[in-house]
Amino acid sequence: MNTLTQAKKLDPLKAFQQKLVDFAARKRRGIRNPFVIVPVDPPYERRMTSILASWEPEPDHHTGQLPVKRIFLDEILPQTDVYRTVVSIPQAALESASASGLGDYDVTERVEQTMRDNLATEIVDLILDEHEDILTVERQIVLLLNLGSLYPFARASELLDEFDRRRAQSTIGIPFPGSVIGGKLAFFGEDARHYYPAHRIDQQIKGRHLQ
User: Fold this and answer.
1) What does the pLDDT look like over 137-160, one tens digit per residue?
2) Against a cut of 0.85, is the pTM above it?
3) Quick check: 73 and 144 in contact, CB under 8 A?
4) Distance in angstroms (rounded) separating the CA atoms of residues 36 and 23
5) How far apart are CA 50 and CA 48, in angstroms?
6) Which domains does the chain have, with CATH numbers?
């Protein structure tokens, strides 16, 4: 079987799951913390979430059962101070800014920049407040699901940078809605960017992989 045929037969969802298991079971190690990412065709992100919500790795006779912790980012988002602050800005304040010469566009830009500057840090703070064991337990898989709900204010790279800075020990997996272009990740099809050096599944998960 030639290389092209083999590539077509790869299942990126299974490859993602297997890599998570291998790192959590310490069957393989990387240079940095064991973070694994996989691109998923954006329309299928929620279906991917539903599959991973019930996924349990097969127990290994050496390592036993590996626990899987599932964190839904769309549920964390409304708990952040920055989100609450932004949604609480009354329309009257925006109108006042416009009347003073700032303009709605300038105010919107400032609000969006505030979200970008603070959201990833706050989300990781809230996750670790609830799941402190992510910093200490190695043989555990943590899935960060529904990343698309944070677009365009927080990216997978920013979340992983925060977990890395705090020396997370658990294996963290993130399905991200987008694709890999020239070795870079394109979030929702935007311009491809250099990415946090996580372990990456390059093939995009599509609907046919989720049957």
Assistant:
1) 999 999 999 999 998 888 888 899
2) no
3) yes
4) 9
5) 5
6) 12-56+65-72+120-209 (3.40.50)
